[in-house]
Each structure stands twice: as C-alpha cells, then as structure tokens.
Design a protein that fits this description.
Helix content is about 40%, strand content about 20%. The chain is of the alpha+beta class and about 280 residues long. The chain has an eight-stranded antiparallel sheet, with helices on one face. The two termini are about 40 Å apart.
C-alpha cells in the first residue's frame, strides 16, 4: 500500500468516524499530513471525487442508516451528521436520495415490523435450498453495530478504485459472525468483502476470507437494509426449526446484488446465505 493510499484511507475513515466534526479542507489536509495546496488535487485525482463530495456522501449514508435504525428525531440526526439545521439537511438528503428524510424513514420501516400471518411471512420471506459455489473475499474486518459496517465497505471500495481492481471484483459480500440478539452491539464481528476469483492476487492491506461451497439456505430479500433483521428472525425462528436441515459450523453472509448509491431503498436486493450440512 502506497503512502498516498494510506493517506486517503485515513481521511475516509476520519470522515466516517466524525460526521459532525470539522471536515473542512484544511482539517482533512492535516489528517492526511499534506499541504492544503496539493492535498485536494491528490484526493480528487486518485478517487475521482472532491473532498466536499466525499464528505457529503459519507454524511448522508450515515444519516440514512440512522433514519431507519434509530428513533432519533430528524433534527438530532441532522446535527449528528454535521448539518446546522433540518432545512439544510433535508435539501442535501433530497438531492442525494431523491426523497425527504421523513419519506425515507417511512420506507425503511423504522421500529417493529408489521404483524404478519405465518402464510404472509412465508410468502414474504421465501427460502430456497441451493448448492452454492465457494467464494473468496478480499476483506476488511469490522467490529461494532452491523449497520455501521459502511465504513469498512468505504475502505475496500476505495482500495478497489485506487488500484483499478473493479474489473476483477465479482460482487460485494458482508460476513456476519454473531447473533445481534445475543451479543452486545459493540462486540459484533463482521467482514466487508470484495468477491474475487481464486486466481486473483490478494490486494495488500486486505484479508483473505474463504466461504466454503456447499448446501445453503438462501433468502432473497427485497427492501431497505433495515428490514434484514426481520428476514433473519424468520429464517432462524421459523424456517430452520421446520426444515429437515442441520446448520453448518460456518457464518451466514449477505450478497448485495445492487447498491444504495443508485438504487431506491425499496428496490435493494440482498441474498442472505446460511450454510447447511
């Protein structure tokens, strides 16, 4: 990993961890340990976006996660992502996502999911048993709330972009090792990964994660990521006890078939893959 890659990754991590902090060009140049006169040109040249665009993108992504995962008011969220008032936050959010924060929150179904009959749940959460090929990931670990894994995906996406690796990437995958109903949020372990071929060189700075081939229970979930927990509850609370399959000693993972960067929340497609014996 080059010195300049390390600087850019350090800055992206700083933005993600400090959305309400001082993210001015001067401050980010200090984080990068570079002269302000050159930093912006280097950042734009290597990432294809300005520092201001990166700050806005990360802030809005954090806000979108909190809108559907937290019961904080829109005003609180606006402050937590660095906007001085609800009006400026709403304008920026509408420009980024095409809808207001309030509409986005309603689509994300914050709070308890609606009561469904067993038949309605079965139709909503269809599970198929499939033979799945092995997956090899170039990944980075994340510890903490699963909804905050976005920072880890920021890192691997930046590395892929900086090194021209996207043509080799076969997909984006999140691996989740712990049950959020049993493990404290701060202790949850996961990996954000780029799926690459067995022949590809492992990018420096990323870890290799092998997901074995074999029989899997696969649930295709359509909708905002906030609803995934309900899909997991159905999988492990209703489907598994009734199915004639044993769970394998291997973690569940998610395959993201499209991206929230260019897809409406209700159109997001996620495969939940649970290994079986």
């Amino acid at each position: 990993m080059t010195l300049y890659e390390k600087r850019i990754l350090r800055v992206l991590e700083y933005i993600h961890d400090n959305p309400a902090g001082d993210l001015s060009l001067d401050q980010l140049a200090d984080v990068a340990a570079m002269s302000r006169f050159h930093w912006h040109r280097v950042f734009h040249g290597m990432t294809g976006e300005t520092c201001a665009q990166a700050v806005r993108r990360v802030r809005l992504h954090r806000a979108a996660c909190w809108l559907v995962q937290k019961d904080w008011s829109i005003g609180e969220i606006a402050k937590k992502v660095g906007y001085p008032n609800v009006q400026s936050f709403t304008r920026a959010f509408r420009d980024g996502f095409g809808v207001s924060p309030g509409v986005f929150r309603k689509r994300g179904v914050i709070g308890a999911p609606p009561k469904l009959t067993p038949l309605e749940r079965e139709k909503m959460f269809e599970v198929n048993v499939e033979q799945v090929e092995a997956r090899r990931l170039a990944a980075t670990p994340h510890k903490g709330p699963y909804i905050e894994i976005g920072g880890a995906f920021e890192k691997i996406s930046a590395i892929a972009g900086l090194r021209g690796l996207w043509p080799q990437v076969e997909g984006m995958v999140g691996v989740y090792y712990d049950d959020p109903n049993a493990v404290a949020e701060a202790d949850l372990r996961s990996h954000a990964g780029l799926q690459i071929s067995a022949a590809a060189a492992m990018p420096e700075g990323l870890e290799e994660v092998q997901l074995p081939a074999g029989k899997h229970a696969v649930l295709l979930f359509k909708g905002p990521y906030a609803g995934l927990r309900s899909a997991y509850d159905y999988m492990f609370g209703e489907w598994v006890p009734k199915a004639a399959h044993e769970l394998a000693h291997s973690p569940s993972y998610e395959v993201y078939l499209n991206s929230p960067a260019d897809t409406a929340p209700e159109e997001l497609l996620t495969q939940i893959c649970v290994p079986l014996v």
